[in-house]
């Protein structure tokens, strides 16, 4: 019986593990893939207070070593179900957490599953993943050195991807469905000054063209409805994220987008269940807010374990 089971070993999850262990609790991290979350794909982290510059991989490694050094356990497995087992008072209740291969028990649960990249939903998209279509510029950008690529999106992720790719690709098209970008104005201005970056506003990608590999993308002007084709060898999709919380639909309340409903206290409507990081309802999803959520959720879980409320 664990005191706290944390679903997800990204920044939020591992921070929660650190705080849980420092409070003297028995903590288990369950991670579907590689610990670290999305930050491991970031070549440079420059916006975390107190750390001027660090790679995302090293940041994640430091968190992992700190959490496990304190005694947190880590198991690999996708959580497919969590059931609350009622037993007397709330403080005596516990949770059965089931993965595809094992089952664990805990007095409290922290959901820190993060969010995954949203797809465009185009016909050829799945077939061309890894053959011209990518969702991670820092992961796959090197494969497109000296080639022509496009980035779709209007937020800071898309702007950052375009900036990153412009340093290795022959030409980069940045495509946004609106006139104004949602990302930082300074990043937009920086991209506008680059000779090998072309900003295409008020356009959406409607078709991916290519059999074995991506060869072209078809664009539609959202105002005139006119179409045109762009010859590109790579398309990087950065149109937002989507959480994977459907396994918990009977445990906690989800909003219309699938995020776990919770405020800054990281408490869900279910006593004993807490949530941290990008998988919860919030306005800002950054490395710092993920770490903050992890600390808040862990301390709330500790308080619940100690007081029963």
Topology:
Layout: E1 2-7, H1 11-22, E2 27-31, H2 56-69, E3 73-76, E4 79-85, E5 94-99, E6 103-111, E7 115-117, E8 133-134, H3 137-140, E9 148-152, H4 156-166, E10 171-175, H5 185-192, E11 197-200, E12 203-209, E13 216-221, E14 227-231, E15 234-237, E16 241-243, E17 273-275, H6 287-307
Parallel strand pairs: 1-2, 1-6, 2-3, 6-17, 8-15, 9-10, 9-15, 10-11
Antiparallel strand pairs: 4-5, 5-6, 7-16, 12-13, 13-14
Helix pairs in contact: 1-2, 1-6, 4-5
Report the CATH architecture of the largest domain: 3-Layer(bba) Sandwich
Proportion of residues in helical segments: 10-25%
Low-confidence sequence ranges: none
Number of helices: 6
Nearest-angstrom radius of gyration? 21 Å
What is the name of the CATH superfamily of the largest domain? FAD/NAD(P)-binding domain
As a percent range, the share of strand residues is: 25-35%
State the secondary-structure class. Answer: alpha/beta
For the termini, the CA-CA separation is 19 Å
Work out the count of structural domains.
2
Q: Give the rounded overall mean pLDDT.
A: 93
Explained architecture:
- The chain is α/β, with parallel strands linked by helices and 309 residues long.
- It folds into two domains: 182 residues, FAD/NAD(P)-binding domain, CATH 3.50.50; 119 residues, 3-Layer(bba) Sandwich (FAD/NAD(P)-binding domain).
- 23% of the residues lie in helices and 27% in strands.
- The protein contains six helices and 17 strands.
- Strands 1, 2, 3, 4, 5, 6 and 17 form a seven-stranded mixed β-sheet that branches.
- Helix 1 runs parallel beside helix 2.
- The longest helix is centred in the last third of the chain and has 21 residues.
- The chain is elongated.
- The model has no long low-confidence stretch (mean pLDDT 93).
């Amino acid at each position: 019986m664990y005191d706290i089971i944390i679903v997800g070993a990204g920044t939020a999850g591992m921070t929660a593990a650190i705080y849980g262990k420092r409070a003297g609790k028995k903590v288990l991290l369950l991670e579907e893939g590689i610990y670290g979350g999305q930050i491991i794909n970031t070549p440079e982290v420059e916006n975390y207070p107190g750390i001027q510059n660090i790679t995302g991989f090293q940041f994640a490694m430091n968190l992992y070593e700190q959490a496990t050094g304190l005694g947190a356990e880590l198991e690999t497995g996708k959580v497919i179900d969590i059931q609350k087992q009622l037993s007397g008072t709330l403080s005596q209740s516990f949770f059965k957490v089931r993965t595809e291969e094992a089952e664990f028990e805990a007095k409290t649960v922290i959901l820190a599953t993060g969010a995954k990249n949203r797809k465009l939903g185009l016909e050829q998209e799945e077939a061309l993943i890894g053959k011209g279509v990518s969702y991670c510029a820092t992961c796959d950008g090197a494969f497109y050195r000296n080639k022509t690529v496009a980035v779709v999106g209007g937020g800071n992720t898309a702007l950052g991807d375009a900036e990153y790719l412009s340093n290795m690709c022959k030409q980069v098209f940045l495509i946004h469905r609106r006139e104004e970008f949602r990302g930082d104005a300074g990043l937009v201005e920086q991209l506008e000054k680059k000779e090998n970056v072309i900003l295409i506003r008020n356009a959406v990608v409607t078709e991916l063209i290519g059999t074995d590999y991506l060869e072209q993308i078809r664009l539609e002007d959202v105002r005139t409805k006119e179409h045109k084709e762009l010859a590109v060898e790579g398309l990087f999709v950065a149109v937002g994220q989507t959480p994977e919380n459907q396994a918990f639909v009977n445990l906690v309340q989800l909003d219309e987008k699938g995020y776990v409903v919770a405020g800054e206290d990281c408490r869900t409507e279910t006593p004993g269940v807490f949530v941290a990081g990008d998988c919860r309802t919030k306005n800002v999803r950054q490395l710092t807010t993920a770490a903050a959520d992890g600390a808040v959720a862990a301390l709330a879980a500790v308080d619940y374990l100690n007081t029963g409320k």
